[in-house]
Amino acid sequence: MDIKTPKLDEVLEGARRSEPVLNFLAQRRSLLVRDMKGPGPNEKQLQLILRLAARVPDHRKLFPWRFLIFQGDARAQFGEHLADKFKRDFPDADHQRTEFERNRFLRAPLVIGVISGPVLCPRGTPKWEQELSAGAVCQNMLLAARASGFGAQWLTEWYAYDADIAEILGLQSSEKIAGFVYIGTPTVPPRERPRPDLAVKVKNWPL
Ligand SMILES: Cc1cc2nc3c(=O)[nH]c(=O)nc-3n(C[C@H](O)[C@H](O)[C@H](O)COP(=O)(O)O)c2cc1C
Predict the structure, then answer these.
(1) Going from the N-terminus, what domains does the chain have, and what CATH number goes with each?
(2) Ligand 1 close to Cβ of residue 154 (< 6 A)
(3) How far away, in angstroms, is 126 Cα from ligand 1 center?
(4) Does the CB atom of residue 177 touch ligand 1 within 6 A?
(5) Residue 20 in contact with residue 28, Cβ under 8 Å?
(6) What is the pLDDT along the chain (207 residues), one digit of tens a residue?
(7) Can you list the positions of beta strands (E) in 41-128?
């Protein structure tokens, strides 16, 4: 069934209890990239994942983020840049390690770079809030991927913070990588991991 795009000003579904959604959130986990294989989302599934990912809170409707898609041969092509940069930074690195860099983006059939691009203006939306909105995009993307039947993991790794790689990716000086969301078909079922003790994390105020 197609997931409809609501029209502007359309009255949307009101809040209601949804056990499937609550269970989905209660069981949410990332899928480690080493446990991914193809296929990835097809074009229609990808467009839906992007549409749902972009549906995040965003102070003043600035939409301060954008996406870069890596699929097919582009993943290996980008891997060449990763290997080159890695070799320049670590000329003594062994062959195996350099090959790992070359194959990084081949670990999943689809990688989506989420780029945070805060729109800066005096007395406008604080940069921090705009960056948080990009984080929300990444999280929505994980949820949309999982609800589409795929596993996903939000990674940054070294290349999200490398100036030369940023240039290869065409980032403006005001832009940063919020994350690379790897998406693929799971080879193993998810397993629960430790979760925080909310008794420690939650306090009533006044203290
Ligand atoms: C901004 C951000 C960057 C992350 N980068 C990495 C990373 O580079 N390498 C890594 O192993 N995990 C990274 N993680 C963690 C994983 O995405 C994931 O959250 C974790 O493996 C399992 O958590 P989950 O199953 O509760 O989603 C990052 C998480 C966030 C929020």
Answers:
(1) 30-69+105-187 (3.40.109.10)
(2) yes
(3) 25
(4) no
(5) no
(6) 799 999 999 999 999 999 999 999 999 999 999 999 999 999 999 999 999 999 999 999 999 999 999 999 999 999 999 999 999 999 999 999 999 999 999 999 999 999 999 999 888 999 999 999 999 999 999 999 999 999 999 999 999 999 999 999 999 999 999 999 999 999 999 999 999 999 999 999 999
(7) 65-71, 110-116
